[in-house]
Amino acid sequence: MAVEKPNEIASQSPVNTVTDSTVSLDAVNGVADLNAPETEADQALSQVTSVSQLTDVRPTDWAFQALQSLVERYGCIVGYPDKTYRGNRALTRYEFAAGLNSCLDRVNELIAASTADLVKKEDLATLQKLQEEFAVELATLRGRVDALEARTTTLEKQQFSTTTKLFGNVWINVTGATAGKGVKFEGPPGSEGNALGRFFATRDLAGRPTVLTAQDPSITTSFLTWLTLSTSFSGKDQLVTQLAAGNGISPYNQYASAGFFNASGVPFFDQTGGVNNGVPDVVIHDLFYTFPLNDAVKITVGPRINWYRHFDANRFNFVFNSGASFDTSNSTQSNSIDRGSGAVVEVTLSKQLRLVLGYLGENTEFLPSQFDFNTSSNPRFGLFGGTNTASAELTFSPTSTINLRLQYNRTRIQAYGGQVGGAIGEPIPYGYLDAGPGFSNGVVGGGLKYATADMFGINADWMLTPGFGVFGRYSFANTRLNPIDQTVRTQSFQVGVGFPDFGKKGALGTLTFLMPMDITKGRTYFASGGGDGGTQYELEASYFYPLSQNIALVPTFYAIFNANNFDSNPTVFVGSLRTQFNF
What is the C-alpha separation between 110 and 118, in angstroms, rounded? Predict the structure, then answer.
């Protein structure tokens, strides 16, 4: 639970230190009540002649009258909050010492300000005598104030209490897709009407990928929810636990070749959170801890780090304020791991340069562990033996309107059923690779053990004016297949324009054209995704329109040309309307 912050405590009970030039009697009384177990001010005492023997200082005592004269002459006590002095009453010795200390400070200020001529010699003598008579009380009071200041300093340093905040996101989608006629795709026999049955690829007896035809899907509605718990122990660190649940199976998946699921033509938030597509199971989406090493270095560690929180950002297709699909939210070849176990280090080199380094072993909430996915937590593979990636990104921002990012990924991709690809296949973003026609015998006999890949990319955005900007990405990659020692080469690009605050402050319109995967070498190793030699292109138009700070509407339109890399396929059109709630 949170405790009161020092500034809140101070605002409730102000206490002036002994270094103040003026002091209120309310504050003086507070010091006396808290720190001095003296008798009541109005308690009757026998008259004594020595000030040092006085328990209380009465208005008739010479010390009281001397201090009163100093107060009137130098204004060193302001009185009570109602501007009255109420000086005609007895004071405890500690109350008196507090007032005396204020007058000493005031006279010292006048002397330091070269206005010593304003201070009478007889007043200095009086102060000297009072100091001697109340030396013990002054020393005690100052010691207590020093201790109070030390405790206040300690409290300010330790003022932060462990705090957990809840953030929520809810997306509701209405999505439809049409091609007007059948669309060719590559996948296992019998999967024409079942997009969920295409998580591996097959070849016929002649070694050719199995080609089937899909018909138009129906319009769907779906939801996705993220609940994020952010806990801080120091005010500078964060322990993030994000829960997810959804039921989306986007219509375009009906057309997709094996290995293309939740890719082209699929709005990013039209997805299921967990393993069982269409079933709203609650899963842990993110789990990591972030803390600063110093002012320039931030470190993130955890069993399930979201790679995309740290790499390949772009101001114009950030998924929360755009209609970006899976293809345009990031580079299609960027990384084989969505979430993973490991660490990410972010280093601010200067105002213009930022370096991010990371290593993650695959640990993804939507892949089934019983089939040997989530390799970082599987003793058979471990953190370094299964699918993993080492990433580096250098961002150069010469001005606040320009960002240029250079990227590199070194990836090891674990094979399943002799094939690599699909959800953890990047830089092969779509399809499945096997050992080729001469080695293949369906799913089991594909022959691959694993693949390694190197990806190089560039990502840029530029705000030309406050209401207009351009952006783009380009990447190319080499993927080496083991144990056959063959190489597949691919490239991708996207270019677009953005219109910030178009129609309303906070709105964003974007238009993007992209090529998600161009195969430049090794098409023969694609058991799915190679098509008939064509190259798929896409056009996306979206408009993020905030109704309020917490609610937005996002209409989006996609056109997919040469779907699944078949030149002979018709153009597929997708329309989606997303309603977004943030809290």
Answer: 8
DSSP string, 265-292: B-BTTSS-SSSSTTS---EEEEEEEEEE
CA-nearest of 545, 448, 438 to 488 is: 448
pLDDT at 24: 34
CA angle 481, 484, 489 (to 5 degrees): 35
Instruction: Kindly report the average pLDDT of the chain as a whole number.
Output: 85
pLDDT at 30: 31
The pLDDT of 373-393, averaged and rounded, is 94
Contacts 24+ apart (CB under 8 A), 136-144: 137/93, 137/94, 137/96, 137/97, 138/97, 138/100, 138/101, 140/94, 140/97, 141/18, 141/31, 141/35, 141/94, 141/97, 141/98, 141/101, 142/18, 142/101, 144/31, 144/35
Phi and psi angles of residue 578, each rounded to the nearest 5 degrees, phi first: -110, 135
Cα–Cα distance for residue pair 362/340, rounded to 1 Å: 4
Quick one: average pLDDT of 132-156?
79
Averaged over 381-400, what is the pLDDT? 96
- Pair 59, 46: CB distance under 8 Å: no
- What is the band of 1 on the pLDDT scale with cuts at 50, 70, 90? very low
**Residue 554, beta-bridge partner list:** 578
Let me know the angle formed at the C-alpha of 410 by 407 and 414, rounded to the nearest 5 degrees.
135
Cβ burial 234-262 (10 Å sphere, 16+ → b, else e): eeeebbbbbbbbbbbbbbbbbbbbbbbbb
Residue 154 burial class via C-beta count within 10 angstroms: exposed 0-12, middle 13-18, buried 19 and up: exposed
The amino acid at residue 324 is A
Whether the bond between 427 and the residue before it is cis, its omega within 30 degrees of 0, is yes
Whether the Cβ atoms of residue 65 and residue 52 lie closer than 8 Å to each other: no
- Give the largest Cα separation in the chain, rounded: 122
At the fourth CATH level, the homologous superfamily of domain 163-582 is: Porin (2.40.160.10)
pTM: 0.73
Q: Are 516 and 263 in contact (CB under 8 A)?
A: yes
Sign of CA dihedral 246, 249, 251, 257: positive
Tokens of 244: 């997810």
- Please list, in sequence order, all residues whose beta carbon lies within 8 angstroms of the beta carbon of residue 327, skipping any fewer than 6 positions away: 263, 264, 494, 514, 516, 538, 540
Using the CB atoms, write b or e for 554-572: b if 16+ within 10 Å: bebebebbbbbbbeebbeb
Which residue type, as a one-letter code, is found at position 481? L
Cβ atoms of residues 539 and 515 within 8 Å? no
CA distance 45 to 49: 12
Q: Which helix (H) or strand (E) holds 67?
A: helix 62-74
Phi/psi of residue 333, nearest 5 degrees: -105, 10
Q: What does the block give as tokens for 314?
A: 């772009």
pLDDT band, very low/low/confident/very high, at 223 (cuts 50, 70, 90): very high
pLDDT score at 314: 95
Query: What's the angle, vertex CA 495, arms to CA 492 and CA 499, rounded to 5?
Result: 150
Q: Which residues of 23-41 are buried (b: 16+ CB within 10 A; e: fewer)?
A: bbbebbbbbbeebbebeee
Domain ranges within the chain, ordered by starting residue: 6-157, 163-582
- Per-residue pLDDT at 440 exceeds 50: no
Handedness of CA 209, 210, 211, 216 (dihedral sign): negative
